[in-house]
């Protein structure tokens, strides 16, 4: 027999001999009342990550001095959600004094780095082609898979730390991209090992080659120094991300098999990376405060008085409701020590500040079964 999503925790509790009160509260109040610095929001594509990020940030802005939302998804949606244009510099959200948004480019501009190095004066003659050796090292480095995203993320984190926001909410890309972002430290460490091994093995040859090509001394060291700074930043950030008092990850899904499956994969990977996660938001829930069994019983009693088309619509709705309740029960069963929040499916889009404000209240107020 299908149970209502609002009663899912109680059903699991009865099956396991637990009291319903033993389950964590079905809200994100634990995050709002914490001192967390970094909050990631992620999950499968199309499950409402951006809406959840915005709603969470709005609630945080009520109790924090300053909150920044950063989109790391190449397909930015924060501007659409809030109904105003944002860019790579923090922009204040209309109607707030302490809520800001950034939409960053996840790729790194190698030409910009060369120009920056040239302007610094650290490499005489670095302008233009940058010399044969520097170009060779750049080609070698840029061929490392994901290196542009790694450096871009490191530069972003340095920039954000200097801004000194109370809390930073990351509206991440779909799961695969996010897991790659979290694996940056190990990826970079392996890449550095290969580069440094090549440099040490062929240092004499590289110096002679550089002299023949008119390369100024120290060019390769400046480029490698830039990458070394990137590694230091990533390691520092990674240490913070592994601190459960500083960082948590909010998993977002919908009540469907593929989304629940991907959430489980995400939770397992986060455990490998030693990143705290104990909150799951289930979006697009059909009447989370209603019981599917009671609704079906009502339909059985009244369908004889309803037109055929109405019965067909209601039957499909109830089938969807029963399917959702089945998967929501599984979520409560799998993650009995998580805060599982059920967000209702609305009859309109959640866009604009006022709409997001209203919807964000559901993150703190669990539904009550009628």
Please report the distance between the alpha carbons of the first and last residues. Answer: 18 Å
Strand content: 5-15%
Per the principal axes of the C-alpha atoms, what is the gross shape? elongated
Helix content: 40-55%
CATH architecture of one domain: 3-Layer(aba) Sandwich
Instruction: Using the coordinates shown, work out and report the CATH topology of one domain.
Output: Rossmann fold
β-strand number: 8
Largest sheet: spatial strand order: 3-4-2-5-1-6-7-8
Order of helices and strands: HHEHEHEEHHHEHHHHEHEHHEH
**What's the CATH class label of one domain?**
Alpha Beta
SS field, number of helical segments: 15
Determine the mean pLDDT.
Answer: 79
Instruction: Give the oligomeric state.
Output: single chain
Specify the biggest β-sheet. Answer: 8 strands, mixed
Helix/strand class: alpha/beta
Can you identify the CATH superfamily of one domain?
A: P-loop containing nucleotide triphosphate hydrolases
